[in-house]
Structure formats: structure tokens, C-alpha cells
Amino acid sequence: MEVHKKVVITGGPGTGKTAVINHLKSQGYFCLAEISREVILEAQQQGIDQLFLTDPILFSQKLLEGRIAQYQQVEKVSKTIFFDRGIPDTVAYMDYFNTQYPEHFIQACHNHPYDVIFLLPPWEEIYCSDNERYESFEQAVEIHKALKETYLNYGYTPIEVPFDTVANRVNYINSHLK
Question: Which stretches make up the NadR/Ttd14 AAA domain (predicted)?
Fold first, then answer.
């Protein structure tokens, strides 16, 4: 019987989260995708280049709504579910950018608990930017700190996943779920 059900894979931009999530999927795990790229692409199709910079609260609200919907989608699932980022990530990014936000963001973090948080550290050797990832590596390091602090503030003890091959990182994650 598995003890952990809701598992977050998080970290700053360019830490290898997507590769880890894809490997978990290839092993048959149920994984929920990061939704920020979807929100960003939707805004770009509406002519807004960087919605987070243009309207950070609207962007964050869309992320929050999507992450809550993902959480509710699997609330009754009795197996391990991996989330590519959790609800507290939304707050961490707003804190990083010194964005004031309404209380319901904080309440959402309290009302939707996760069982385990895995934090992937900044890894300069694999970092690259693209059309949806505009942060520099130095900013990625600061975002990592904000994520760690946010999860700690909500009572979690994030498990840092060491640098290694994707397969070994997934093995490390699996070894901490038993």
C-alpha cells in the first residue's frame, strides 16, 4: 500500500522538472502537467507577450484556478499522483516578484495539502531559456530560494533532488516514497 498520494515536483525554471515528469510518466505514473506554459501560450495568442509581467494577478489567478482544478480532479484517486508544480508555487512566484495578492491565494495553499514535495535545485549546466522561460539563471536561483521558503512557510519539508541523470533522479524520488 502506498502511503503518499499527492506529490509535487517543483523547482525554479530550467531544473529538469519536465524531464523528470516525462520519465515518471514513462514508468506508468499518473502525472499532471505544468499549466503555466498553457496560460502563457493562451495569452500570447491573444496578443499579450508576457501576461505575468502585464497583469501578474490575472496570470496568477489563472494558474491558481488551473492548479486547484488539477488537485480536485485527483482528490479521490488512491494512487500516487505527481504534480508538475503545486499551488504554493503561485504564491512563491508572486512573493519573488513582490506582487501583492489577495488572501484567497494563501487560503488555497492551506486548503489543498500535498503529501510530499520534491525540490529540484538550479542546475546551470542544463539551464536554457525559451519563448516561455525568460528568466536568467541568476533569477532561477532566486526563484528556487523563494519556492523553498514558501513551501517551508506552509509547513512542508521539501526533499531536494540531487543533480544526476533523469533516471537516477526518478529513482531517488521513488526511494523517498516507500
Answer: 6-169
Q: Does residue 8 sit in helix, strand or coil? A: strand
| 1 within a domain of the structure (yes/no) | no
Q: Are 36 and 85 in contact (CB under 8 A)?
A: yes
- Structural domain of 134: 6-175
Instruction: Give, for 119, the enclosing helix (H) or strand (E).
Output: strand 116-120
Please state the separation of Cα 18 from the chain's center in Å. Answer: 10
pLDDT tens-digit readout, 92-140: 999 998 999 999 999 999 999 999 999 999 876 765 665 555 667 788 8
What was the pLDDT predicted at 1?
A: 39
Is residue 154 situated within a structural domain? yes
CATH number at residue 169: 3.40.50.300
Cα Rg of the chain (Å, integer): 16
d(CA 73, CA 43): 24
Place of cell 517551508: 152
> In terms of pLDDT, which residue wins out, 154 or 38?
154
CA dist 88 and 65 (Å) reads 12
Q: Which three-class secondary structure state does DSSP give residue 150? A: helix
Per residue in 127-164, pLDDT (tens digit) is 566 555 566 778 888 999 999 999 999 999 999 999 99
